[in-house]
Amino acid sequence: MSVLVGRQAPDFEAAAVLGDGTIVENFKLSDSNGKLRVLFFWPLDFTFVCPSEIIAHDNRLAQFKELGVEVIGASIDSQFTHYAWRKTSPDAGGIGEVGFPIVADVKHEVTQAYGIEHPEAGVALRASFLIDEEGVVQHQTVNNLPLGRNVDEMLRMVKALKHHQKHGEVCPAGWDEGKEGMKDNAEGVAKYLGEYSKEL
């Protein structure tokens, strides 16, 4: 397990199924440099918690796009398994035709590069990475296999990053869009805590 926050996200090239259903053999993370990206991994296609997380990302895809974020999914399944799962409706346990690329990490190279391979099961843990325009990881979460993610928290982190980029302020505990940020100095901390400490 490794922490990639503050470091360059490992680039990769792999087969993938795109959001329009096209299969490509040379999908590269670096092709989307200059954009914010959410890269998230799940253990295996045609399983249980996984489709709920993938559909949750797809249901919020318009919100991610409005924020200028590219969403990319990945697991160790092949591009053909991904394609078949996209062609399976949710009421049959599939994910439907989700609108973002799904990477086929069949050699486990991407999973291992991101340091999130389960030590016993050999699949990807439920890991998510927020990668900025320069390719630097700004946020990551890693859940064990039974624990599904809250995609709204990733949206909140995107908004927090954009607030910091725009205003230069840091985002305190529980910050959400429309709330005040904090100046990163002693005066800023005192001012913020003086006003909001009881709400934290």
Note down, in words, how this protein is organized:
By secondary structure, the protein is of the alpha/beta class. Helix content is 29%, strand content 20%. The chain has six helices and seven strands, in the order βββααβαβαββαα. The chain has helices at 49-59, 61-66, 79-86, 109-113, 151-167, 186-196; strands at residues 13-17, 23-28, 36-41, 69-75, 102-104, 126-131, 137-143. The protein has a seven-stranded mixed β-sheet. The longest helix is centred in the last third of the chain and has 17 residues, at 151-167. The mean pLDDT is 96.
Helix-strand blueprint:
Blueprint: E1 13-17, E2 23-28, E3 36-41, H1 49-59, H2 61-66, E4 69-75, H3 79-86, E5 102-104, H4 109-113, E6 126-131, E7 137-143, H5 151-167, H6 186-196
Parallel strand pairs: 3-4, 4-5
Antiparallel strand pairs: 1-2, 1-5, 3-6, 6-7
